[in-house]
Design brief:
The structure is a homodimer of 660-residue chains.
Chain A: H1 3-6, H2 8-28, H3 35-73, H4 76-111, H5 115-147, H6 152-191, H7 204-271, H8 280-307, H9 311-335, H10 337-345, H11 350-363, H12 366-396, H13 399-421, H14 426-468, H15 479-520, H16 533-547, H17 549-566, H18 568-604, H19 614-659
Helix pairs in contact in A: 2-5, 2-7, 3-4, 3-6, 3-7, 3-16, 4-5, 4-6, 4-7, 4-13, 4-14, 5-6, 5-7, 5-13, 6-7, 6-15, 6-16, 6-19, 7-8, 7-12, 7-13, 7-14, 7-16, 7-19, 8-9, 9-10, 9-12, 9-14, 9-18, 10-11, 10-18, 11-18, 11-19, 12-14, 13-14, 14-18, 14-19, 15-16, 15-17, 15-18, ...
Cofactor (chains A, B): Mg(2+)
Keywords (chains A, B): Cell membrane, Ion transport, Magnesium, Membrane, Potassium, Sodium, Sodium transport, Translocase, Transmembrane, Transmembrane helix, Transport
Subcellular location (chains A, B): Cell membrane; Endomembrane system
């Protein structure tokens, strides 16, 4: 292999970073709006940064402790790779979110001019996030690959660093965002009868901070983990099948993915014309299609030239298509006909709405699972375990633009909030609402995509574990394996339970604080006095940090405990059990939550009684129940699945070394 | 083996049947009360019978068609055994439920005398159900065993007959009972503001019918299936380990179980003294303990004498203890401290109550799974696959009394309803309420027990499938097996979705009908005119029968489709996936539903605002959401798991014969 191939990840990553800097300037050069807007935006930025810094402090204690363990028990290269992987994830989350929180006020201000201007700013803000995650992820893994000459053990350390951050970002961020949201809604909307994002609501800044730390930084870390995990496992399994060529191939695919994403992002920027009649959804999807087509051309050439046949290209295409289809299915269940049918059940009350929403979420597991099954079997039959890992890489290759579209949503949402709080012209709010409604759909698609890619990545990591732990057969007929699977299937339920209770407990404290401020701060309701926003941010932060430890421990310790009690083969059973049950639970919760959210929005457009009607009240209950489903527990299960796999890959071989 | 051993099942079964006849007379000799009571009881009987007959008609079309398939493709002995197994289940369900519907009015009438008299009638009514199920189940399987000299293939036909009936009884009965219940509550309690069981509510008879067809006949068929399935698989696996001795051993254990159950039932009858200050819960549990102790003594002797060591006894004891512990855990989560904490969240509204209830249900999966895991591993290490099957037999050996206590609940509940409708002295209602509140707890324990035994039975059936399909290794590292597990894990979600939507749809039609009757029947609300009860029964019947087909097909066809697409090893993967995910979903749904139900009841005792408060309203929503969870989807998943296993055991070998 030529040195250029070995360096592909580093070069493409660096290119991506340069492009990100360019995008950042494009965003920052925009007018951030008037003083009031700047003040609000700053409050969100300060809150979000404060949360992330507190979160990272705790994270780094664990990361450093763990890296010492890795260093002493295994190798210091691995320990350094671990810290490196975690740090790049932290940096990308921090930087991406920082720009997102600066893009929101600029989007609002641009919306005073035109829809297209606002769209560009919001999209480029999201693109900074997407490109940062993909570029830094690939760059870092590329550096490790180059320096260690493709040492898979050291690379697994890097992947585990990514997983640790993802866990904290998703669980902590998920608890923060929903505690703030539920707290703001329960008192503000329901009790005090003031609208969403009203500046008099003390929890409103916390709510906006939550959108950023949960939906932007959390989602970014989640996909960073999937992206790194899939490339790592494809490289490890590729080395077994095609030696050096196979090891480097996934890096090449990902490198061209970065370039394709850049082209897609530029396309959106050029295509958006200066007028108000554009269709934001079309523009965004257009960019994704361009990027994917570019990538596919590269994939077919690379596959033939490097691996000598189109086999790899077929598998990668399959992964990409399945990713897009799962996104589409998610959109169908959370934004199309089923939602209208669901909204109708709200006319009979909240109980029928809740029952039917759960039925919808459960039903929605079927097609994605069948799609993933097809991708798995076809990939396996074409290229063995390497095929499965490559399908995952294919799904994630153009992450730069996929995540851009996903992160665009919260920016548009925040922009609307700022427009509301700053009292801008209602026309502005209309424009941001239009952007936001597209954002809700892209967010739903993004969640489906995150679950789909997590599943394929988990499958690839499962196969990698089998290899590194030297397990030849995982026989379900062995009672230890079956019991492992049984316990593994239980973990996502226990994990979700902890996450949901964390939201409930933190929201409760938030409710009490918001009520207190309404009562004790004179003139607050008349808009004459300002609420204490910072206090609410602090409550959400403390709650999230306190409550994220237990579920995190569960994810990290389970494979270790199973190893000591039942052995390394049973660990594989546990991973399988967690994956199969976790995927269903994650899809169920995400889609039920998404459908309730959109059912409420549909009713708010005036259907089935509209705002203030009985069915609207029922739909608000559905939405509130769905919040921790779709934004805390559901997405966190993705991490649980991947983290348990990577923890097993890294730690079990070390334990085997010492105890067997 | 002596002939007496071969005949043990037949003899004990016959003994049980004789005892059941004796019990039946004890129930029927009681005073059924005044004309009004008799009329209400008759209406419930007619409705319940009408439903079962319609259900059985559809069932028999499928049973006969399927038996023809078995006869032509395999053997006519198997076809006959299949019909025989189905018919005995139908008979026990029909007979047991018939006596239960006669016991209800007699319980109400006895309650005019004393609590103890009422307790005896209700318990003996339940005991008829319990003993019928256990006796007929064992008798029939014993006959097949004796006539075919322990031919496991023919026995599997019998077990599958039991499974088919269980499916229809659980799914159909579950849809019926909740459509009626939700329909009655939504219009009656919420809209018309009349109390539960008010005779003016047109759906009230349907509601009481539902208790019988769902909780009595459905639960009976469910446990009949587990009972037969566990004895069958233990016999099949025992033959492999200990040849003839091993094959007959499970029958001996079950035979002494029948005798122990009889002793336990007699104990309760003798122990209940004629006064009002008895503690019904103590009496009932006392009977179970006596029965289990008797059984354990027999088990230890049999184990040593027949199999030459105490190994089997230890395994059976473990199964029994785990069964009791799972019942206890279920009681803890659905009737103790966690419920009070849950009820408190209702003070913040229905959304927190719903979120926390789901978190509770998810958390409650952990300990039962760990207990089952311990039982599985210890049993396997002591006696291999035979050990797992024996643990399941141990859990179910004293089914006669376990199910008696379970079926007692709906009888007490119905008695309360009749007392209310017939306008008896409030003192009577107080007594039946006392019986009913114990019934709620025993029902919760029964559900936990049903899931626990279904899981162990499913594990035993899984092992049996491996044997009969000649699968040596079920390797999760084979992508077909992993995909099988993934699809298998999805099925309980899809199945639950179908069941819950069926309830929603049927309940909707019921709501419209009840509203119509309130509006169109003059004088109904003043108690001057009678509602059209039969119409509501008919709606629930039609809804249940129409909607039970699709989920049933899903259970039967899935293993067959997987076999054709992915092969016989992948079928094993599918069974494992369905089992591990299904168990979690079943426990989650059952316990969340049970906890919401009891949280509502707790608030109705005056806590957290009591009846009519905001928290009460929230708790009614929780209860309504929980109804299809705990009484339709949750329990039906048990059947899905077992039926898929038995279908695989019976059909896949036939398909292998033809296609491989």
């Amino acid at each position: 292999m030529g040195a250029i191939f070995q360096l592909a990840g580093i070069i493409a990553g660096a290119l991506g970073i340069i492009f990100t800097v360019f995008l950042t300037f494009r965003v920052l050069e925009r007018d951030p709006g008037n003083e009031k807007m700047k003040k609000i935006s700053e409050a969100i930025q300060i809150g979000a940064k404060a949360f992330l810094i507190s979160e990272y402090k705790i994270l780094y204690i664990i990361v450093i402790a763990f890296s010492l363990f890795l260093g002493f028990s295994n190798s210091w290269e691995m320990a350094v790779a671990f810290i490196f992987g975690a740090t790049l994830s932290v940096l990308s989350g921090f930087f991406g979110m920082n720009i997102a929180t600066k893009a929101n006020t600029r989007t609002a201000q641009s919306a005073t001019k035109s829809l297209s201007k606002a769209l560009k700013v919001a999209f480029n803000g999201g693109a900074v996030m997407g490109m940062t995650v993909a570029s830094l992820g690939l760059f870092g893994l590329g550096v490790v690959f180059f320096l260690t000459n493709g040492n898979t053990v050291v690379m697994s350390g890097y992947a585990m660093g990514a997983s640790f951050v993802a866990l904290f970002a998703r669980v902590g961020g998920g608890i923060f965002t929903k505690a703030a949201d539920v707290g703001a809604d329960l008192v503000g909307k329901t009790e005090a009868n003031i609208p969403e994002d009203d500046p008099r609501n003390p929890a409103t800044i916390a709510d906006n901070v939550g959108d950023n730390v949960g939906d932007v930084a959390g989602m970014g870390a989640d996909l960073y983990e999937s992206y790194v995990g899939s490339i790592y496992s494809a490289s490890a399994l590729g080395a077994l099948t095609f030696s050096a060529k196979g090891a480097v191939f996934p890096f090449l695919i990902a490198s061209f993915g970065i370039i394709s994403a850049i082209i897609g992002i530029l396309f959106v920027n050029l295509k958006v014309k200066e007028n108000d009649s554009i269709d934001p959804s079309k523009m965004l999807h257009g960019g994704t299609y361009i990027a994917n087509i570019m990538e596919l051309i590269a994939v077919f050439i690379l596959s033939k030239v490097i691996l000598g046949s189109y086999k790899a290209a077929i598998v990668i295409t399959l992964g990409m298509v399945v990713g897009i289809l799962i996104g589409g299915i998610t959109e169908y269940y959370t934004a199309k006909k089923p939602v209208i049918k669901l909204a109708k059940t709200a006319t009979s009350g909240s109980a029928p709405l809740l029952i039917n929403g759960m039925a919808l979420g459960m039903e929605s597991t079927a097609i994605p699972v069948i799609l993933i099954s097809i991708a798995t079997i076809v990939s396996f039959n074409i290229l063995g375990l390497f095929g499965i890992a490559l399908a995952a890489v294919g799904m994630l290759a153009t992450l730069g633009i996929t995540l851009a579209i996903d992160a665009y949503g919260p920016i548009a949402d925040n922009a609307g909030g700022i427009a509301e709080m700053a009292g801008l012209d209602p026309e502005v709010r209309k424009r941001t609402d239009k952007l936001d409604s597209v954002g809700n759909t892209t967010a739903a698609i993004g969640k489906g995509f995150a679950i789909g890619s997590a599943t394929l990545t988990a499958l690839a990591l499962f196969s990698t574990y089998i290899q590194v732990a030297n397990v030849s057969i995982v026989d379900l007929n062995d009672s230890n394996v079956f019991v492992g699977a049984l316990i593994g299937a239980m973990l996502p339920f226990l994990f979700s339970s902890l996450a949901m209770k964390a939201v409930g407990d933190s929201a409760n404290i938030m409710v009490i604080e918001v009520r207190r401020q309404f009562k004790e701060i004179p003139g607050l309701m008349d808009g004459k006095a300002e609420p204490d926003y910072a206090k609410c941010v602090e409550i959400a932060t403390k709650g999230a940090l306190k409550k994220m430890t237990l579920p995190s421990l569960l994810a990290v310790l389970s494979p270790v405990i199973i190893y000591f009690l039942l052995g390394k083969v049973a660990v594989a059973g546990t991973l399988a059990g967690t994956t199969v049950a976790g995927v269903m639970l994650a899809i169920f919760m995400s889609n039920a939550g998404g459908a309730w959210d959109n059912a409420k929005k549909y009713i708010e457009t005036g259907e089935f009684g509209g705002k203030g009607s009985m069915s609207h009240k029922a739909s608000v209950i559905g939405d509130t129940v769905g919040d921790p489903f779709k934004d805390t527990a559901g997405p966190a299960i993705n991490i649980l699945i991947k983290l348990m796999s990577i923890v097993s890959i890294v730690i079990i071989p070390i334990l085997i070394k010492f105890f067997e």
